[in-house]
Amino acid sequence: MGTSAVANNAKVNKAKLPPLDMPFLVLVILVLISGLVMLFSASYAAGLSDEGDSMYYIKRQLFAAVIGVIAMFVASRFNYRLYRRLSWVIAGISVLLLIAVYPFGVKVNGARRWLSIGVRFQPSEIAKIGVILLLAYFITYYYDKINDFRYGIGIPLGSALFFAGLVLFEPHLSGAILIGIIGIVMIFVGGANWKHLLICIVIIALLFGLMAVTTGYMNSRIKAWLDPWSSPRDDGYQIIQSLYAIGSGGLMGLGLGNSQQKYGYLPEAHNDYIFSVACEELGFIGAVVIILLFALLVWRGFRIALKAEDKFGCLICVGIMTQVGAQTLLNIAVVSNAIPSTGISLPFFSYGGTSLVLLLLEMGVVLNISRYSNTEKG
């Protein structure tokens, strides 16, 4: 009888999942709540004018947040090692969706980035996950040949650039840049020859620079970035209004809900330029707090990656946290006119239900990796 009880207890303990990383979970929840509060403040004027309902955008974002949180906790229980077998499937679906954008995509503001299948979504969001899983697979599979250019850089970087190229021709410049950054960071962390990688980066940068100055819409954005006031009613309008919003906030801000720029002056106030509204309402102090929250989230995610049980888990975690960190930096750089406008959203803050659900799903994957890591608690 005693032996049977011990055996039963052993089975229960074996079936019980290891605990997840609570500091990371708390940071995700804090960033999510901050984003929802800020979105409500930034979107109610647009909701009232666009849809006749001041709660239009926040209601949909709250629904997406609930679905996303459920997806996060489900993913946190789904053993990340199974993604090794699913990486090709997910990457393949991503490619098919990206290709489907060209004949079947919904065109908005001159860009064909969205598909509508019951719900409207950007395939580029799914492509980010596909790239991360595929590169994690390639780098670990060819790890014994990591110093060979073909296997260490050629195959993974070529795969990332293939995805980036499909996204670029939508056109979706920010999505292509982000996929490129994810690929380069994952290849570097994977242990590839850094000299070979540096040469590739220089070549890609030169080709991208040449394309930027010879492509109409990119060239106009560069001109607006260098001198927004040269076209204050056209290409420079959005960045000028963004700078007005940031400057109006001062040290302490005008107070939550008191932005003036969101009342029809600043386009995409609830989307790509939501950080400008945050600066206006919360001031420099509030902006720093938001940046610190993102910095802590990314730091904790990389800590989980460093302590991951295997290379595959480490690389998935690095890819996901690079996506969040790079996207945040690019968005803040755009709205502050540090770089030309690329049309990139702020993770967890900008309006977009599909994007939020997928982000939270990715956070669930990181939480699952943390279950099998050696990260110290606290």
The residue-averaged pLDDT reads: 90
Count of DSSP strands: 3
How far from one another are the termini?
40 Å
- List SSEs in N-to-C order: HHHHEEEHHHHHHHHH
**Number of spatially distinct domains:** 1
Tell me about the largest β-sheet.
3 strands, antiparallel
Low-confidence stretches: 5-14
Give the strand order, joined by hyphens, for the main sheet. Answer: 1-2-3
Structural class: mainly alpha
- Oligomeric state of the chains in view: single chain
Q: Count of helical segments?
A: 13
Proportion in β-strands? under 5%
Q: Percent of residues in helical segments?
A: over 70%
Computed over alpha carbons, the radius of gyration is 22 Å
* 3D shape: globular
Give an overview of the whole structure:
The protein is mainly alpha-helical and 378 residues long. It has one domain (20-371). Helix content is 70%, strand content 3%. The chain has 13 helices and three strands. The chain has helices at 2-15, 22-51, 56-75, 83-104, 123-141, 149-168, 173-190, 194-214, 216-226, 237-249, 274-306, 311-335, 353-371, and strands at 106-108, 111-117, 119-121. Strands 1-2-3 form a three-stranded antiparallel β-sheet. Helix 3 runs parallel beside helix 13 (353-371) and helix 7 runs antiparallel to helix 12. The longest helix has 33 residues, at 274-306. The model is unreliable at 5-14 (pLDDT under 50).
